[in-house]
Amino acid sequence: MSVVLSRLAAILVAVGLIFTSLTLGNTGRAAAAEPGYLMVHFTGDSATGQTLYLAHSTDGLHWNDLNGGAPVLRSTIGTRGVRDPALIRSPDGSRYWIVATDLCIRCGSTYEKGSPSLVVWESTNLVTWSQPRLLNVAGAIPDGRNAWAPEAIWNPETNDYVLYWATNATLNGVLKYRIYYARTSDFRTITTPQVYIDPPGATPVVDTQMTEVPAGVGHYRYVRVSGDGRNTVEGSNSILGTWTNLGDLSSLGLTGNVVEGPVWMKFRDRDEWALYIDYNNPQGVREYRPILTTNPFDVSSYRLQDATGYDMGGTPKRHGAIMSLTAAEESRVLARWPSTPAERLQSYNFPDRYVRHTNFDVRIDPDVSPADDARFRLRPGLAGSGTVSFESVNYPGYFLRHADYDFQLAHEDGTSQFAADATFRKIAGLADPSWSSFQSYNHPDRYLRHYAYQLRLDPISTATGRSDATFRVTN
Fold this sequence. Notes:
11% of the residues lie in helices and 41% in strands. The chain is mostly beta strands and 475 residues long.
């Protein structure tokens, strides 16, 4: 009997492998076997462009926009614009940070003098992020006029992170951009900033990015590229030690402002690296483009990837960061940001009015402006299966949530109480079954309804109440 069962199991496994091969193909099998990559980036100088976006890739070269190409994080502090994000994972994988430039071009900021602070988000799972906070890094630098293009790397020699960025300041009578660094363990407090990279004379430097390279590849442990006019490549065995010039990207025709925001990525399935560059193409459009190499310390081995060999997806991708994902991280990320459409909730008995947020209060109004104040994504419920939660389109990470039976637009804090308060069962409309009503998850005798145009959570017992609690989900 055991022999028969073993043979049957072998046949079923073989059939399963054949089915997988036929349905997934080679690319699908690779994607199923190996987790992919996550990119965080901004898109440009527009108001929506200076927010944070995510993209996912199974091979590190072909990218798909998450969240339908819409932003996933928005800054509500400082200049209210963010650019140049860095994505950091703690060595044990228990904590993540996004650190970005606090700069909103065309909406109040200037390149000449900006914020001395960086914007920081923190997470324990890569999908639920804290509210942003400011970290003043340039305030302690004499004549420090701004803080740009932050990056951070774990330093095993000091058992903390080296946070580095560009600041325009006067030093020894020369006003220019230099790279400064400070040490931190929590991205809340830092040591006194020190000069990290200072090219000779008036030559400025911005946009430095480094990565650790496995032992046995070249003579160094770390490699970095800096935007100093020639895009210098350097190697070192110590993050805060001496760096050796290995060449630059001028041999590829990449000099000056043609290139910004270099970011390194190691392919997980082979000994090859991609150096992504924020590239000003011949048409004058900025876009990410990969440079490939099997040895980051040998600049002569660098080669620009042909346009047919990569795809950056639908949204423009500017100076960002790339992380190799674990299987668990990838599963969480893809589940959190599917391409869910943006929709509106139209009132049944006041059909010219829609649910909207204003100053984080929630009501129904006609002629909503800006229109995104009345647009939400119906996400899988934060608590309970077969339920929904309403995430704001223009304040991603903020959900409709009841508190004392009143509604507000609130930032998800990751607690079970928040999840329950922001979760509803979508049922047939109480006034018209072709419409919809929304039953509270944690107060099932109450429903989402409007009263005097304000949104409330109430028990429903009258015809008026049933009409107030009925909505159409529409685009």
